[in-house]
Amino acid sequence: MEKNRFTICANNYIDCLRQEGRYSTAHVYKHAIRSFSQFCGTQSITFSKINRETLKRYSNYLMASRLKPNTISTYMRMLRSIYNRGVEAGNAPFVPRLFHEAYTGIDVCQKRALTAAELHRLLFDDPRSERLRRIQDIASLLFQLCGMSFADLAHLEKSALENNMLRYNRIKTKTPMSVEVLDSAMVKIDRLRSVRKSQPGCPDYLLDILCGDKSRKDEKAYREYQSALRWFNNSLKELARALHLKSPVTSYTLRHSWATIAKYRGVSIEMISEALGHKSIKTTQTYLKGFGLEERTEVNKGNLSYIRNCNVKG
Question: Whose CA is closest to 171, among 104, 229, 106?
Answer without folding.
Answer: 229
